[in-house]
Structures are given as C-alpha cells and as structure tokens.
TrEMBL record:
Phylogenetic classification of the source organism: Bacteria, Bacillati, Bacillota, Clostridia, Eubacteriales
PROSITE patterns with a match to the protein in the record: PPC
Protein name: PPC domain-containing protein
A Pfam family matched in the record: PCC
Species this chain originates from: Clostridium magnum DSM 2767
Entry-linked InterPro entries: PPC_dom (IPR005175)
Length: 153
C-alpha cells in the first residue's frame, strides 16, 4: 500500500458548459487557477459524446489495461470521480477519472470504466479539491503493465 497524508488547499465548484470538450476545459481551469494536483470527489451531468475504455472483442491479456480501446457512446448521463496529478516535465496535469454512464436512448443502460474523453451536453458539475502537498505524480511502474501510477513524493 502507498499512502500519504494530504495537505488540502482550495475547494472549487466548476460548471463545464454545453458543447465544450471536458478535458480541454479542465486543463484550462487548472491553468487559470494554478491548480497542479488534487482530487475530484464527484462530477456529474451529461455528455453528447463520450469515450470510455471498453471492448466487445476477445483480448489476449484481459487483466491488462486497455487504454487504447475506446468504447463510444452518445447522449449519456454520468457520475464520476478521480485524481489529478502533475507532470513537471511537460508542465501539464494528468487526470485519472473513472465514470459510470447511463444511455438515455437505451433505457438508461449503464456502463462503468476509465474515462477517456467527452463533449459536454447541457452541463457537467464538478467539485475539485486542491492538494498542496505532498507532490502527486504518476510514476511509470514496469511491474504493472508500464502504467504511470499515482505516487506521493
């Protein structure tokens, strides 16, 4: 187990607007407000288009991540949460969200997975809590499929 006591900074309420790209808006918010890391206890709302990780095909290693395997959906209701780490070298945030979606056009059929991208429909509401310390970074772990895992430095 890896853990750390977090020193909390500001808390923000954010509304993402209709027609906007969710990740682009999040990056802009963090840049404007100088937020480099934190956690999102929840966000919810609608996406007109969304990609989450998923497949209907047989995979060679089902236990491995499938980050390059998007499942596409339209007109969904969502609820998600996650963390935001910082890449010092690139000077960008590294969000990691998991999300549950319900397809309004298919009897609210639901799916849950890793969030890849989405275009806001109507609005997305988010609460974001800034973490001042320790430094939250994603460190490459060769033992876990070369994933960049959250670390506290």
């Amino acid at each position: 187990m890896i853990s750390a006591e977090l020193k909390i900074g500001r808390t923000f309420g954010i509304r993402f607007e209709h027609g906007k790209d969710f990740m682009t808006e999040l990056e802009e918010f963090c840049r404007v407000n100088n937020v480099k890391q934190g956690y999102v206890p929840f966000f919810f709302g609608d996406f007109s288009e969304i990609n989450i990780v998923g497949t209907c095909s047989k995979v060679e290693h089902p236990e491995a991540p499938m980050l390059n395997s998007p499942a596409y959906f339209e007109n969904v209701e969502t609820f998600g949460c996650g963390t935001i780490a910082y890449d010092k070298e690139a000077g960008t945030i590294l969000p990691h969200f998991h999300i549950s979606i319900g397809s309004r056009l298919n009897s609210a059929t639901a799916h849950t997975s890793h969030f890849i991208s989405g275009k806001v429909q109507f609005l997305i509401e988010m609460m974001l809590v800034e973490v001042l310390s320790p430094s939250m970074e994603r460190i490459l772990d060769e033992n876990v499929f070369n994933l960049r895992l959250l670390s506290f430095l």
